[in-house]
Model the fold of this input.
Amino acid sequence: MEISILKSSILIVDDSDYIKAITSTLLKREGFTNIFVASDGISALEKFKEINPDIVILDIMLPKMNGLDVLLEMRKLNPQAKIIVISSLATIENIQQAKNLGAAYYLVKPFDNQYFIKVVIDLLTTKGKE
Done:
């Protein structure tokens, strides 16, 4: 893997400390170092504006502002934003809505760790969601 990819900034947005810890650990094991976290929709948008991350890992069920609204706002701020939605809510409606709002991927919790890393790397090495 290219060194430049490992320097990518990654924002993890989830109200679960467990999920933030797991995803951070998986990314750190791969060599990623610029990892940021947020626990609710409002702080996620603030952090997004502050760091303009290369990739966002975003839960749907969030306090203060739901993940789909956060996704919409992030895509307004940066139409090329690379966003992976992760959720235990695997309804066709949620998946379709996330895709329509610009999510590059929708992963259902619990997800396969190796697939998660593959998705992150694949997304970082492409131009993003058009």
